[in-house]
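Please describe what follows:
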Amino acid sequence: MVLVKDLLQRQERLLVVWLVRELRER
């Protein structure tokens, strides 16, 4: 269960970073 939670948190972080990058490009 801990591994799954960690993976979800990592994915969320990557999504946030990607969104910020996309917004900065525009």
